[in-house]
Design brief:
The protein has 153 residues and is mostly helical. Helix content is 70%, strand content 0%.
Protein backbone atom coordinates (compact mmCIF):
# COMPACT_ATOMS: atom_id res chain seq x y z
CA UNK A 1 0.00 0.00 0.00
CA UNK A 2 1.44 3.41 -1.03
CA UNK A 3 1.06 6.34 1.35
CA UNK A 4 -0.38 9.55 -0.07
CA UNK A 5 0.53 11.59 3.00
CA UNK A 6 2.67 14.42 1.62
CA UNK A 7 4.00 15.24 5.08
CA UNK A 8 5.98 12.02 5.01
CA UNK A 9 8.14 13.42 2.20
CA UNK A 10 8.57 16.81 3.85
CA UNK A 11 11.71 17.71 5.75
CA UNK A 12 11.39 16.86 9.41
CA UNK A 13 10.59 19.67 11.84
CA UNK A 14 9.69 19.95 15.49
CA UNK A 15 6.02 20.16 14.49
CA UNK A 16 4.59 17.10 12.71
CA UNK A 17 1.67 19.23 11.45
CA UNK A 18 4.05 21.79 9.91
CA UNK A 19 3.63 22.95 6.37
CA UNK A 20 5.94 21.28 3.88
CA UNK A 21 7.68 24.62 3.29
CA UNK A 22 11.43 24.31 3.45
CA UNK A 23 13.37 26.79 5.55
CA UNK A 24 14.66 29.39 3.15
CA UNK A 25 12.66 28.63 0.02
CA UNK A 26 12.13 30.79 -3.01
CA UNK A 27 11.00 34.39 -3.06
CA UNK A 28 8.18 33.34 -5.41
CA UNK A 29 6.74 31.12 -2.66
CA UNK A 30 7.63 33.47 0.17
CA UNK A 31 6.23 36.73 -1.19
CA UNK A 32 2.52 35.81 -0.97
CA UNK A 33 2.86 34.65 2.65
CA UNK A 34 4.95 37.71 3.49
CA UNK A 35 2.35 39.98 1.88
CA UNK A 36 -0.56 38.45 3.80
CA UNK A 37 1.34 38.65 7.08
CA UNK A 38 2.38 42.19 6.19
CA UNK A 39 -1.20 43.33 5.61
CA UNK A 40 -2.40 41.71 8.84
CA UNK A 41 0.58 43.10 10.78
CA UNK A 42 -0.02 46.58 9.38
CA UNK A 43 -3.69 46.48 10.38
CA UNK A 44 -2.70 45.25 13.85
CA UNK A 45 -0.04 47.99 14.13
CA UNK A 46 -2.41 50.74 12.98
CA UNK A 47 -5.12 49.52 15.36
CA UNK A 48 -2.67 49.56 18.27
CA UNK A 49 -1.45 53.00 17.21
CA UNK A 50 -4.95 54.48 17.09
CA UNK A 51 -5.84 53.05 20.52
CA UNK A 52 -2.55 54.18 22.09
CA UNK A 53 -2.92 57.59 20.44
CA UNK A 54 -5.97 58.26 22.60
CA UNK A 55 -3.77 58.39 25.69
CA UNK A 56 -0.20 59.20 24.59
CA UNK A 57 1.56 61.40 22.05
CA UNK A 58 2.20 60.15 18.49
CA UNK A 59 5.84 59.10 19.03
CA UNK A 60 5.07 56.98 22.11
CA UNK A 61 1.99 55.47 20.44
CA UNK A 62 4.14 54.58 17.43
CA UNK A 63 6.84 52.98 19.59
CA UNK A 64 4.31 50.86 21.51
CA UNK A 65 2.37 49.76 18.44
CA UNK A 66 5.46 49.02 16.37
CA UNK A 67 7.23 47.09 19.14
CA UNK A 68 4.26 44.82 19.80
CA UNK A 69 3.43 44.23 16.14
CA UNK A 70 7.10 43.66 15.19
CA UNK A 71 7.45 40.71 17.58
CA UNK A 72 4.25 39.15 16.22
CA UNK A 73 5.34 39.87 12.63
CA UNK A 74 8.74 38.23 13.06
CA UNK A 75 7.19 35.15 14.66
CA UNK A 76 4.57 34.83 11.92
CA UNK A 77 7.11 35.29 9.12
CA UNK A 78 9.46 32.82 10.78
CA UNK A 79 6.76 30.18 10.70
CA UNK A 80 4.65 30.88 7.62
CA UNK A 81 6.94 32.72 5.20
CA UNK A 82 10.23 31.01 5.90
CA UNK A 83 8.91 27.65 7.18
CA UNK A 84 10.90 27.56 10.42
CA UNK A 85 9.22 25.78 13.32
CA UNK A 86 10.23 24.93 16.84
CA UNK A 87 11.88 27.13 19.41
CA UNK A 88 15.50 26.64 18.32
CA UNK A 89 16.83 29.98 17.11
CA UNK A 90 13.62 31.89 17.91
CA UNK A 91 15.29 34.35 20.27
CA UNK A 92 18.11 34.97 17.80
CA UNK A 93 15.55 35.57 15.04
CA UNK A 94 13.64 38.02 17.23
CA UNK A 95 16.86 39.90 18.03
CA UNK A 96 17.76 40.04 14.34
CA UNK A 97 14.18 41.12 13.60
CA UNK A 98 14.79 43.99 16.01
CA UNK A 99 17.07 45.52 13.38
CA UNK A 100 14.12 45.65 10.98
CA UNK A 101 12.05 47.07 13.84
CA UNK A 102 14.60 49.85 14.40
CA UNK A 103 14.58 50.74 10.70
CA UNK A 104 10.78 50.84 10.73
CA UNK A 105 10.82 52.89 13.91
CA UNK A 106 13.22 55.36 12.33
CA UNK A 107 11.06 55.74 9.24
CA UNK A 108 7.76 56.04 11.09
CA UNK A 109 9.18 58.36 13.76
CA UNK A 110 10.67 60.49 11.02
CA UNK A 111 7.30 60.76 9.28
CA UNK A 112 5.61 61.75 12.54
CA UNK A 113 8.32 64.33 13.29
CA UNK A 114 8.02 65.75 9.78
CA UNK A 115 4.26 65.99 10.16
CA UNK A 116 4.63 67.71 13.52
CA UNK A 117 6.98 70.23 11.94
CA UNK A 118 5.13 70.80 8.64
CA UNK A 119 1.55 70.42 9.86
CA UNK A 120 1.50 70.61 13.66
CA UNK A 121 -2.27 70.29 13.82
CA UNK A 122 -2.60 67.39 11.39
CA UNK A 123 -5.47 65.02 12.10
CA UNK A 124 -5.01 61.46 13.27
CA UNK A 125 -6.15 60.37 9.79
CA UNK A 126 -3.18 62.24 8.27
CA UNK A 127 -0.87 60.67 10.88
CA UNK A 128 -2.13 57.21 9.97
CA UNK A 129 -1.68 57.96 6.26
CA UNK A 130 1.92 58.96 6.86
CA UNK A 131 2.49 55.82 8.91
CA UNK A 132 1.10 53.66 6.10
CA UNK A 133 3.66 55.15 3.70
CA UNK A 134 6.51 54.69 6.20
CA UNK A 135 5.36 51.13 6.93
CA UNK A 136 5.34 50.34 3.21
CA UNK A 137 8.97 51.41 2.89
CA UNK A 138 9.91 49.51 6.06
CA UNK A 139 8.19 46.39 4.71
CA UNK A 140 10.48 46.24 1.69
CA UNK A 141 13.52 46.56 3.94
CA UNK A 142 12.08 43.98 6.39
CA UNK A 143 11.58 41.37 3.66
CA UNK A 144 15.09 41.85 2.31
CA UNK A 145 16.64 41.63 5.79
CA UNK A 146 14.63 38.53 6.65
CA UNK A 147 15.41 36.86 3.33
CA UNK A 148 19.17 37.49 3.25
CA UNK A 149 20.10 37.68 6.94
CA UNK A 150 17.55 36.59 9.54
CA UNK A 151 16.10 33.47 7.86
CA UNK A 152 18.72 32.84 5.21
CA UNK A 153 18.47 29.35 3.76
Amino acid sequence: MVSTDKRAAAPSTDDPQASPAKPGGTAKRQLPAFAIIGVLSTLFYLGLYVVARWVVDPQIANLIALAVSAVANTAANRRFTFGITGSEGALKHQLQGAVAFLIGLGLSSGVLALLDYAAPHASKVVEVGGLIVANGLATVVRFLLMKVWVFKG
